[in-house]
Design a protein that fits this description.
This protein is an all-alpha fold. It is globular.
Length: about 350
């Protein structure tokens, strides 16, 4: 397939925009608890959209899955379920921290762990230490962790600056302590996505053997992976709904705008899935510039999630010093992403 970096860049940018925007519709849901909204969202983002995309883009979907080694399917599902825990806690972090901090901290930690864990597990960590590319990658992780700390400081200053009423006006359930530990846990578990994609490569290879175009080879992989993610989220949400015994009341027309809430959750779920679809397409178009794909995605998410944070007035009423800490943290995270890209570029030059 011919490379087209400009097309790839546009597609990856769209993936970043979709990721940053997906939580915005939740702000307009009325009369539903978070778990009910998240469950409806999950059905769309992790079941309906992935399998519809796989069905539309893979000529022989059934044959692809039946010819894939069962262990590859199981491990893809398993790591998807583990990633689902990260996705669940990421949703809670966004609930308690807002769209600025709720994205910046988990993304920074996920990027760091996603860089360090695979070589550590694969027994190649020493190569990071002795090669120039590896040293750049390790430096990018250190810079990323610094960015996380700076963003956490900004959150602590925000907590100090605002009254309880002001916090609820910008983020209705703002809770710094709860949001921070959820962000850390989310970032750690979300790194399992990389393992799921790696273990699911036999699915993509089977898709290619059965005549699937290169551009769509990853759609059946993500369909299996996201079933795992849906499983853990579904169990958690259903457990809360059963415990609280209020699902029936919430879905009655006289207690909540049923159609409007469903539409908002469908929009959120569709936006979320667009990140996987556009990123998978864009990465295949980057050619020799494939090393830059991940950093472009991270920077786009950071930038657009903070634009949403401004639109929802999450930082209104905070001091100029607090805003400077936030900006500094975001800039440091962006620098870390570009350093990771440069490390990938150096890897290519060392091999060649």
């Amino acid at each position: 397939m011919a490379a087209s970096p400009l097309t790839g860049l546009m597609l990856i940018t769209l993936a970043g925009v979709a990721t940053a925007c997906f939580y915005a519709p939740f702000k307009r849901v009325r009369g539903w608890t978070w778990e009910l909204s998240w469950l409806v969202f999950g059905v769309i983002s992790w079941i309906v959209c992935p399998w519809l995309a796989a069905w539309l883009t893979v000529p022989q979907l059934g044959a692809v899955l039946s010819s894939t080694p069962p262990m590859a399917l199981f491990l893809t599902y398993l790591f998807g379920a583990m990633w689902g825990v990260g996705s669940l806690t990421n949703g809670l972090a966004l609930r308690y921290l807002g769209m600025s901090l709720g994205w910046a901290i988990p993304l920074g930690l996920c990027a760091a762990l996603g860089t360090l864990i695979p070589p550590a597990v694969g027994g190649t960590f020493h190569e990071l230490v002795i090669s120039h590319s590896g040293q750049m990658t390790l430096a990018s992780v250190a810079v990323g962790l610094l960015g996380i700390v700076i963003c956490a400081v900004a959150g602590a200053l925000k907590d100090r600056d605002l009254s309880a009423e002001q916090k609820q006006d910008s983020v209705s359930e703002f809770n710094l302590g709860r949001g921070l530990w959820l962000s850390v846990f989310s970032g750690a578990m979300s790194a399992c996505m990389a393992f799921g994609i790696a273990r699911g490569k036999p699915i993509a290879e089977a898709a290619l053997r059965h005549g699937t175009p290169d551009l769509w080879q990853n759609t059946p992989l993500f369909a299996v992976l996201l079933v795992g993610g849906f499983t853990t989220n579904c169990v958690w949400c259903l457990g809360l709904l059963v415990r609280n015994r209020n699902a029936g009341q919430q879905t009655q027309r006289n207690t909540a705008p049923l159609v409007a809430n469903c539409l908002l959750c469908i929009i959120a779920g569709s936006l979320w899935y667009m990140q996987s679809l556009f990123y998978g397409m864009g990465e295949t178009k980057m050619g020799h510039y494939r090393f830059a794909a991940w950093s472009v995605l991270m920077v786009c998410i950071i930038v657009f999630s903070n634009l949403w944070g401004l639109a929802f007035r999450e930082w209104n009423g905070t001091s100029a010093a607090t805003k400077r800490w936030l900006i500094a943290g975001l800039v440091v995270l962006a620098i870390s992403a570009f350093m990771t890209s440069y490390g990938s570029y150096l890897t290519g030059t060392e091999v060649s």
